[in-house]
Amino acid sequence: MMSDGRLAPGDLGALVREWRTRALLTQEELADRAGLNVRTIRRLENGALRRPRSTSVRLLIEALALDRAEADLLTTAAAGRAPREPPSGAPRQLPAALAGFTGRDTQLRRLDGFLRADPDEADATAVVAIAGPAGVGKTSLAVHWAHRAARHFPDGQLYVDLRGFDPSGTAVHPSEALRGFLTADGVPPERVPAGTEAQSALYRSRLAGRRVLVLLDNARDADQVRPLLPGGGTCLVLVTSRTPLSGLIAHDGAHPVLLDVLTPTEAQHLLARRLGPRRVAAEPEAVAEIVARCARLPLALAVVAARAAIRPGFPLAGFAAELRESSGLDALSGHDARADLRSVFSWSTNAVSPAAARLFRLLGTHPGPDTSTAAAAALAALPLAEARALLAELADAYLVVEHAPGRYTCHDLLRGHATELARIHDTEQDRRSATLRVLDHYLHTGRAAAALFNPQRTEPALAPPQPGVSPEPVPDYAAALAWFTTEHRALLAAADHAVRTGHHRHAAHLAWAVSGFLDRRGHWEDWIRCQGTALTASRHLGDRALEADAHRNLGRANARLGREDEAYEHYHQALELYRRIDDLGGQARTHTNLALLLEQTQNHAEALSHALQSLSIHRGLNDDGVGHANALNTVGWCYALVGDYRQTLVHCQEAIVLHRTINDRDGEAATWDTLGYAHHHLGNHRQATTCYQAAIRLYRELGDRYYESLSLIHLGDLHNGAGAPTTARENWQRAMHILTDLNHPAATDVQARLQGAVETTPSTTTR
């Protein structure tokens, strides 16, 4: 440094050389990347070029990928000016930086963006609100960045822990924080005025025109923060809080920086920084389990890392097992309240209203991955508007996250905390009643949606919902499809939960409600899972009708996935149970299913025999419902497979009339496909095209992607046989897209068609 305050000639070169080396670039590579002459780079680094052009400086900043702070430093050095020297006695209150900080690159870049190139031109203090749930690392991020940016604030850095969520319940009053700031800035204690307003005025006066960073940690609300905001535009304020500080954002122009749990990669890097990369790399499975069971929450990971660090000879698998075998929170407890997950979470739950705390506890008993406002209302027996307000309060406290409009979730550790609190504060009867209410909510809403989804299905008789349960309105088919699309994971979880909690009839009926959607949308593995739950429940109840239905649906789901042996076994068990209880309708439907299964295995004659048995039973029952109509179509399909297309037309034309009479669009679509197949093989190209297109249109309207793909295959086969290979490929490509998306083995057959490896006329693609 020269005596007049300018940089010495070598300082600029040292900066360029340091950053070039960091970027692993040679002088030639940097010159090429920046679009400069290599001689310019050499002259910069050896001090011969003291005042480069501003365009050259800009090109170097881009080529070296400098952040805002580094860019400012390079610009200052290139102008021959020294960075501003901090005045003696400026407050330096930042806590010690956290060793091993990692990740949060996106948030750090966002914070860098608040460093102004010329703060003297700003007319207001920049306020940044870092918000997120307990244990997510808000303070660590703020302190880490504050140290990184400290040189931009040579007039000082002020810090206060406002203890907004302290277990003592005593938050720091703004007057107390102001008194601390003023005395740290050199105001004698006896000269600090009385009263918050006077203190705040003096504080703003002293910081006016100065470059000071103010870190307000753990704020409770906007009112606690406002008196601590400097008045001019040369300062920057960082605020951390477990609430979103919406008022500070809306009325004071604060910029939100929201923190969530770490990504899996960031979580592993955190462990590696704390425990060493070799130890972490040696046990990847244990590390992955620790990350998952800690819910990627930085505080939880830090607690586990601390325990592992003081036991360097212990395998990490042991710590993973401890988390697995305990409640999670048990393995994350300790004597230090700030590193005890229960204590840290409790500071947040103690800060919300009693009604919100009760809802939070009950949410721990909710079975699904997330919950809607309506389901939460049923869980707590609350009016919808009240539940919505309480969920908003919990979201503001980061005890839940609204991850989609009207849908709330929380990570597993918070869910475990909620469950523990429910056991402490709510009676067993209270918890059981909440469980029954939410099961009733899903069952009765699901029944209404299923009735629109497949109006021809026989609905089970249900008891009225519990008091406090108002099923969601499902006005039409589109609403039913949307509801199932959103809620089917919750329905599967609810069915499993119903079995575990002894509500077996709810479990069986929930499986019934969701089955049609799972089949139509191609979620066959989920269908098998939920029907397995229904089978367990029906056996516990001793209800052979429900058991037979579960076996039949398990047969259908396995058949969809090409697991013929499993499907055949379930169908025969269903048939035997239907015979024992003298359920002729169930027997007839199972014969229809067996016919379609045998068609898949090319046993066409036996398939026709089962189809005719089904039709005979339905005619004997004088049943003009969906089972009879489906039997007619299945007989027609089986006749087509044995080459009797005239009989196909006879039976399917009768089926079309019946399907339309009972408004069975599923069955109508299937029958149009069969008619298309028959006309195709009778050489009636135009009629076949019309029938296939009618089937495709109906399947698309119904959202039945699998059967839409089969009709597309058939239409492609028709065009291919008629000498229109381009149109054929278009239809096969559409079918291929659906089947690939569904991960269905039939995609292999379509791929063979597209590659020209199979003869496609006549088509024998199964349905």
Task: Give the helices and strands, then pairings.
Blueprint: H1 9-22, H2 27-34, H3 38-45, H4 54-63, H5 68-78, H6 105-112, E1 126-131, H7 138-149, E2 157-161, H8 174-184, H9 196-207, E3 213-219, H10 222-225, E4 236-241, H11 246-252, E5 255-258, H12 264-275, H13 277-282, H14 284-293, H15 298-309, H16 316-325, H17 341-349, H18 354-363, E6 371-372, H19 373-380, H20 384-396, E7 401-404, E8 407-409, H21 412-425, H22 428-453, H23 477-500, H24 504-520, H25 524-541, H26 544-560, H27 564-580, H28 584-600, H29 604-620, H30 626-641, H31 645-661, H32 665-681, H33 685-702, H34 705-721, H35 725-742, H36 747-754
Parallel strand pairs: 1-4, 1-5, 2-3, 3-4
Antiparallel strand pairs: 6-8, 7-8
Helix pairs in contact: 1-3, 2-3, 4-5, 8-9, 12-14, 12-15, 14-16, 18-20, 18-21, 19-20, 19-22, 22-23, 22-24, 23-24, 23-25, 24-25, 25-26, 26-27, 26-28, 27-28, 28-29, 28-30, 29-30, 30-31, 30-32, 31-32, 32-33, 32-34, 33-34, 34-35, 35-36
